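Regression report. Comparing outputs from two consecutive submissions.

Submission 1:
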Amino acid sequence: MNDNEFEIAIVGGGPAGITAALYAGRSRVRTIVLERGAVGGQLWNTADIDDYPGMSMMTGPEVAQKFEEHARKFGAQFEFGTVTKISKDGDWFVLQTDEGDEYRALSVIVTAGGEARKLGVPGENELAGTGVSYCAVCDGAFFQDRVIAVVGGGDSAVEEGAFLTRYASKVYVIHRRDEFRASPVLVEHLDHTGKAEKVLNTVVEEIVGDAKVTAVKLRNVETGDVSELPVDAVFPFVGFIPHSDIFDDGLVDLDSSGHIETDFKMETKTPGLFAAGDVRSQYVRQITNAVGDATTAALAAAAHVENVKLAQAAA
């Protein structure tokens, strides 16, 4: 094979991508992982990991480093690059990056994850980095003894809200419904901090500030009342947009939220093209099921590669 040709290419270096690389390495398959940022993906934006066996109360960055070290032990090759297009050329998949590089692989595992969904309100883009943040671990310490607003009602919002109470004097958790969607244990943890206040049936209409955040303009969805809440920072956790827009037409099917549909082998409608982790259509999105799905995808991809090579040899 040429330098840019691999048996398996993995798009994304989060928990799923690292696990796929580990199992591909153990299978002695020539593999490359293309990651656009730090290896570990969303782990770097996660406060505490308390739901992965054997890693109780470790930080996300600590887990990311352990994952990467383990994968490299089995020969995983990581390269920096943002994959912008995946197409098919005979037995080969062709992967193109935003820097103009091209890679070819007999099988591809997409573990590209996604990114935080924005609120889409005035002031959000203008104040990003000066009080608006999507990463509690990254930016929470900048708001020691300040007042913080967290927007959202799912697991991420409640968990990150509890984490931010380590720094803030007060954390308001703003949710548009009358109760959180987060798991009860996370809500209990938030309550026990003693520094969080729930603001329910409420949406953020605007993030107010000039050079920095000074308040959020709120609207009660039941009464229509509009108010202004003084805060020093806003952390939105209102959803996730999967990175599933990199395929040539017809290679994959997507569900209504843009996640990639697969079968029980994590294989898409295109043989040899697999998906795992947060980018895949599934019921829950946790580290545990991401690494499990990636294990399946890697072993199935290795089998696909072997079948292609046997067919090429027999031709």
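Submission 2:
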Amino acid sequence: MARIRTIKPEAFASESLAAVSLAAERTFFGLLTQADDHGRFRDQPAVITGLLWSLRPEHGPVDVEDDLAQLAAAHLICRYEGDDGKRYLHIVTWRQHQKINRPSGVRFPACPHHDIE
């Protein structure tokens, strides 16, 4: 279940967000609402499309894949494979920007490149 997330005013002056398309930026903000309490989510463009772009059929899974590639190239998200062979992503600066009062348990595997738990 998605929880309430915040977007800081500085996000709109972020050089890394300015380096991606407006669609990728919207996907990024949408991922904030869908990620678990550790900033992780399944890397499934079709599912992300359904959650974030359901009322915008012109922006499909191929477009979301491009959004995710842009976000990864800008180091805003990290895409990785879990030990289960499934694809995941996490928001790289999650802990700097989100404060979770009552975190739920771990839903997705930790990122082998950034998470130290």
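Expected: both submissions complete independently.
Actual: both completed, but the second showed a warning that disappeared on reload.
Relevant detail on submission 2: Residues 30 and 52 are 6 Å apart (CA to CA).
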